[in-house]
């Protein structure tokens, strides 16, 4: 069963990273380090962070602590 509210598109993961802003290629791993669920990872081939598993507590430190503002967490409508 797909457990997702209608406002939340199932094919999109909740956390997106702006590849133009992400400085993972310079060694940044802040979002990966702060995520309590360990669902973020660095894609070494692209040099950017990305969401590895589609799971999220919407606790927000990845978005707040990213030094370049590259992370956007889409909070599902029903949780707002
Ligand atoms: S904290 Fe921001 S800049 Fe650093 S790896 Fe994550 S998305 Fe990229
Ligand atoms: S909002 Fe929290 S659980 Fe979701 S990716 Fe960011 S740090 Fe991880």
Automatic annotation (TrEMBL):
Gene Ontology molecular function: 4 iron, 4 sulfur cluster binding; metal ion binding
GO cellular component: cytoplasm
Gene3D superfamilies per the UniProt record, alphabetical: 3.30.70.20
Signal peptide: none
Presence of keyword Iron: yes
Pfam families per UniProt: Fer4_7 (PF12838)
UniProt-listed PROSITE patterns: 4FE4S_FER_1 (PS00198), 4FE4S_FER_2 (PS51379)
UniProt keyword Metal-binding present: yes
Keyword annotations of the record: 4Fe-4S, Iron, Iron-sulfur, Metal-binding
Protein name according to UniProt: 4Fe-4S ferredoxin
Organism: Piscinibacter gummiphilus
Highest classification ranks of the organism: Bacteria, Pseudomonadati, Pseudomonadota, Betaproteobacteria, Burkholderiales
């Amino acid at each position: 069963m797909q457990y997702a509210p209608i406002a939340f598109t199932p094919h999109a993961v909740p956390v997106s990273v702006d590849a133009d802003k992400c400085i993972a290629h310079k060694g940044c791993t802040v979002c990966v380090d702060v995520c309590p669920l360990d669902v973020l990872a660095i894609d070494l081939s692209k040099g950017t962070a990305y969401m590895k598993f589609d799971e999220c507590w919407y606790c927000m430190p990845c978005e707040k602590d990213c030094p370049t503002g590259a992370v956007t967490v889409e909070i599902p409508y029903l949780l707002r």
